[in-house]
Design a protein that fits this description.
Bound molecules: phenylalanine
Number of domains: 1
Helix content: over 70%
Distance between the termini: 48 Å
CATH class: Mainly Alpha
Shape: globular
Structural class: mainly alpha
Radius of gyration: 21 Å
Length: 459
């Protein structure tokens, strides 16, 4: 254990894991997914998945990691024997692919920080048109996403407590404070309450399979579940940590940031007379509007500050995404950490190039004829995140239920939480992992496959 490094204490782990969870998923993806899928109804389904399905899965992932003390592949293999390692490999591949496009979007956020603070973005007027031009311009994107990958690699090279943990400690609380400040401001704007209604008053007619499916994918993505990030982080904690409470804290922090992001964005959307169904451009189009209204100097400071923090939130997530394949190569292949980090970072950056060029820069990537004319970025995000992460969670549940067994998991959790055994939380976690999650996630997966490839829907 000592030679692999580890988190220095409980709060270090919780903040790093929450740092992994809180990211573009909360501030960029959550609001636009909610906007496209019926606002409050989406929020409700998302909360259901987060607390009922994802929380137990998070407890499971961290337990697997701590029991085995290895990377995602090594952990499954050590506990389950030979073939189960494939579950870990599947997660590692998802991590690589997610990072490849995530880094591109992080590059946009980085570019927005610079353009707002030091450039003339706030004078643009038509922020929608600006966003379109911006993401289609591969020159800037290339530079910013390369910068982002380099910064990520720098921190991952420094290891667990020196890099990952230190970065999370300061950034997370600051993000929280600035979000709250902006929300208070945005709620005072005209028509803001229409946004609040859209976001908080559920309309049952908006409930359909698409909403359920998007909310499920979003819950897994946002909590960094289903691909071994928390197995990997769990392998760096010591036995006296209370996994059940740590997982609860991580979940609550993540949900709070997503919830607050929605509470900021929807009042703004409605006060600016925009539509909530805008899609991936939503925050990039709507937010500059309030920063512009704050006046040139204040707008630059607050707007720049906001996008800088968004970059930091993204950074604590890219760090965890990169750590997953790094830990695999270091633990399994005994390769030197530093070289592995740089080589993987370069490789993943290259894998991300088609995604970067898929926002208008190169027509062939921007509209895939074999994928509903969606972009390459959409394709990677849907396959490796929306579909694969819930599948990863389903397979992990099956692994615990039928291979590792829940009593072994309880024993592992009991190390840092003696009262866990026999508690109501234990019963809840076990029911979800043995019954609810495999059935529900399995059905969702089968339905997705049928509807995507055969246009058949079970529901
Ligand atoms: N949870 C991160 C976010 O919300 C993204 C992520 C997914 C990070 C999977 C690690 C693993 O931005």
């Amino acid at each position: 254990m000592a030679s692999r490094g580890g988190f220095s204490n409980r709060i270090g782990f919780v903040l790093a894991a929450a740092g992994s969870a809180v990211g573009l998923g909360n501030i960029w993806k959550f609001p636009y997914e909610a906007g496209q899928n019926g606002g409050a109804m989406f929020l409700l389904v998302y909360l259901f998945f987060t607390f009922i399905i994802c929380y137990p899965i998070m407890v499971g992932e961290i337990s697997i990691g701590r029991r085995a003390g290895k990377d995602a592949y090594g952990s499954y293999k050590k506990i389950g024997g030979g073939r189960w390692g494939i579950l870990g490999l599947f997660g590692i591949i998802c991590g690589v692919m997610i990072l490849s496009f995530y880094n591109v979007v992080a590059g946009w956020a980085f570019g927005y920080f610079l353009e707002i603070s030091f450039g003339s973005l706030l004078k643009e007027g038509d922020f929608g048109a600006f966003f379109g031009r911006y993401t289609a311009d591969y020159g800037d994107n290339f530079i910013f996403s390369i910068c982002f990958m380099i910064i990520t690699a720098f921190i991952v090279v420094r290891g667990i407590s020196g890099g990952i943990e230190k970065a999370s400690r300061i950034l997370m609380p600051t993000l929280f404070i600035i979000l709250i400040g902006l929300i208070i401001y945005s709620l005072t704007l005209e028509n803001a309450m229409d946004g609040v209604r859209f976001y908080l008053l559920p309309d049952p007619s908006k409930l359909n399979i698409e909403t359920i499916y998007s909310a499920l994918g979003q819950a897994f993505f946002s909590l960094s579940l289903g691909m071994g990030a928390l197995i990997t982080y769990g392998s760096y904690i010591d036995k006296n940590q209370n996994i059940a409470t740590s997982a609860a804290m991580i979940t609550v922090m993540d949900v709070s940031v997503a919830f607050l992001a929605g509470l900021l964005i929807f009042p703004l959307v409605f006060s600016q007379g925009q539509t909530p169904t805008e899609g991936p451009g939503l925050v990039f189009v709507v937010l500059p509007g309030i920063f512009e209204a704050m006046g040139p100097l204040v707008g630059r400071i607050i707007g720049g500050g906001f996008f800088l923090l968004l970059c930091f939130a993204a950074l604590t997530s890219t760090i965890s995404l990169l750590e997953v394949p790094v830990a695999f190569l270091v633990d399994e292949k005994k390769l030197p950490r530093k070289a592995v980090v740089w080589i993987l970072a370069a490789f993943i950056f290259l894998v991300g190039l088609p995604s970067m060029l898929s926002q208008g820069a190169v027509e062939a990537f921007s509209s895939l004829s074999w994928y509903d004319d969606k972009s390459f970025l959409d394709f990677v995000a849907e396959v490796f995140s929306d579909i694969s992460l819930p599948l990863g969670g389903c397979l992990m549940s099956i692994f615990i239920a039928y291979r590792w067994k829940t009593y072994n998991m309880s024993e592992e959790i009991g190390n840092g939480y003696p009262a866990y055994k026999g508690s109501i939380i234990e019963k809840f976690v076990n029911v979800v992992i043995t019954i609810l999650a495999p059935i529900m996630l399995g059905l969702m997966f089968i339905n997705t496959m049928l509807s995507k490839f055969f246009e058949i829907s079970m529901f």
